[in-house]
Amino acid sequence: MHEVDMTRALLLAMEGWRQSHKPQVPLVDTVHLQVGAFTCVEPDQLVFTWQAAIQNSWLEGAELAIEPVALLGRCLCCSATYTPEPERGYRSPCCEHPMEEIVQGRELRIRSVDYQLPQPDTATAFLPLSAPRP
Amino acid sequence: MHMPLEDSLGLNLLAANQHQAAHNREHFDAWKLLCLNVMSSPGAGKTSLLERSLPLLAQDFAMAVLEGDMTTQLDAQRLEAVGVPVVPITTGRACHLDAAMVCGGLRLLRDRLDPTGLDLLWVENVGNLVCPAEFEVGEHRKVALLSVTEGEDKPLKYPVMFREADCVLITKIDLLPYLPVEVERIEEHVLQVNPRCRVLRVSASSGAGLEAWHQWLRQQVALQRSSLAAPGPDPQRTADPALSALI
């Protein structure tokens, strides 16, 4: 159920992006989404609901490619970074310090979109114009 | 083409909800009230705690409640019975409140009363330890409840909720003598995930711990008032006129 709402949020964000290309409608091949491990999103379920949600829409056929981002905490005692293992708890393995700082793992971010704009006089091949931003 | 989305559109998946939440918060600030988002699993005791706390806090604060529930208005009726204005928000299929739903609730609230007269606005979220953690509604503070009957491991199993909370209330502590649960372990698990939150033990049934909980609330109201009184942009003037029309 959670992933349905996340998919709706994703479609909303994509719709806003589509509006910025008016009057053209981008032909989307792939949406690249970063999903952090310390979020409430299960990637497989998100892909499943995405595939159902885009049927008969302007995004039909578009792939949702999820880039998992591991949880990384920083120990504020010794500055070492670590990935907590939930079974062992969230304290740092080096100093047993609680997880105060999260370096990464909270991402729910559309990183980039592979798409083409339908222009009658140009080639339709996908052109890698820029690298995704960090 | 392989293109990053434009920054102006927001790269975060939840950007639309966060935008609406920020607008809600602008109104809370303009109304000079403190908004609390109360979250927990179903049955952890959110409504029971409010039933017990609201009459005691009513001596000091003017309050209202936005009551989220999936299908019924039973909780809203319980809280109306203690004499506090309640606006029910029935979410239907959705397992959490989002900022747009709360915005709708604010419109209904404003039809009933002048929100500038309120000190505290409670948002009782739908019972769920997962989704509400990700969907902010414009609140100033998040309060998460965890009942002792749920076991010691829940903060490790649902860490995002407890990470996000400003205050974690361990509820139903009157049942501790009957359970193989160590409340210290629950607290330790919460603080592993979120060492900066306040953890308090309470029982709505016996009244144990309520004074410390109410004291925390009074501190937050005072902090919020002092932050609004501090020099800076007047929230009344910076509130988005488009949203003023919306609410």
Summarize the SSE layout with pairings.
The complex is a heterodimer of chains A (134) and B (247).
Chain A: H1 2-19, E1 27-36, H2 43-53, E2 63-69, E3 72-74, E4 81-82, E5 101-104, E6 108-116
Parallel strand pairs in A: 1-2
Antiparallel strand pairs in A: 1-6, 3-4, 3-5
Helix pairs in contact in A: 1-2
Chain B: E1 2-3, H1 15-30, E2 34-39, H2 46-57, E3 63-69, H3 74-80, E4 86-90, H4 99-112, E5 120-124, E6 141-147, H5 154-157, H6 159-164, E7 167-171, H7 183-193, E8 198-201, H8 210-229, H9 235-238, H10 241-246
Parallel strand pairs in B: 2-5, 2-6, 3-4, 3-5, 6-7, 7-8
Helix pairs in contact in B: 1-4
Features:
heterodimer; A: 134 residues; alpha+beta; hypothetical protein PF0899 fold; 3-stranded mixed beta sheet; 2 helices; 6 strands; 22% helix; 26% strand; B: 247 residues; alpha/beta; Rossmann fold; 17% strand
